[in-house]
Amino acid sequence: xxxxxxxxxxxxxxxxxxxxxxxxxxxxxxxxxxxxxxxxxxxxxxxxxxxxxxxxxxxxxxxxxxxxxxxxxxxxxxxxxxxxxxxxxxxxxxxxxxxxxxxxxxxxxxxxxxxxxxxxxxxxxxxxxxx
Length: 131
Fold this sequence. Notes:
Layout: H1 2-23, H2 28-46, H3 48-64, H4 77-130
Helix pairs in contact: 1-2, 1-3, 1-4, 2-4, 3-4
């Protein structure tokens, strides 16, 4: 399932870049084109949410169902290190999933806000021309 994590990592990076480009001041001349491009990518990025849910279940399953050591002497040092490494990796993956959800929500909200601001600006211009 490593391909899912790589795909999610690239998608989070793309979301972060799009969000950065939308919120950088001074790009007003490019803003309309950026908003159109981002609105076009929001629906395909929505397909990442079920993938995130599946990966979240995988992380939960990995944390809950860690196999117990059946030996009489308990866990060896290498078993403990492997368990700790797996827990750290699961925590990082959970952070990646939360970041994907947060960035998608921010991208959706900011895009809708910019579209609304553009519409209000056009309405203001038409009212100035009429009045």
